[in-house]
Specification:
134 residues
């Protein structure tokens, strides 16, 4: 079986759609869901040729990116961060997760430790992004 990152990214978008609050405007919902899809797709595509990862590990990396992109996209919209900064913030978060999640799955770090490590990294990057907007 070969990792079908395109279908997987689409599945993640569909799953995320059930969690987007009705409090968001349509444009904001669209942004959140497309960010989930685009980042899972982009990083899934970059993993496809890496033979050192199993399909399950590739899915773990993409799922982790999608989850955090969803969480931080909703956070920044709720905080009222200008739309002109959204892509920049999401890109930095997704790239950070990609680096750490790949390392964690490659080193067989357990899920709890991996998520704890990624959470610390994401929060640091997110706070840094917010601080640099001011």
């Amino acid at each position: 079986m070969s990792f079908d990152y395109e279908s997987f990214a689409q599945d993640l978008r569909v799953q995320a759609s059930g969690f987007v609050s009705d409090d968001f405007k349509e444009r904001e919902k669209w942004y959140i869901l497309n960010s989930v899809y685009n980042n899972a797709y982009l990083f899934g595509e970059s993993l496809i040729s890496e033979d050192r990862y199993t399909d399950e590990q590739k899915m773990t990396v993409c799922r982790t990116i999608a989850e955090w992109v969803f969480l931080k996209s909703t956070d920044m919209i709720k905080l009222g961060i200008s739309e002109k900064y959204w892509d920049q913030i999401v890109k930095q978060i997704a790239q950070t997760i990609f680096v750490y999640a790949r390392r964690c799955v490659y080193e067989n770090i357990d899920d709890i430790e991996m998520h704890k490590n990624i959470k610390m990294q994401v929060e640091a990057v997110y706070q840094d992004c917010i601080k640099n907007l001011v």
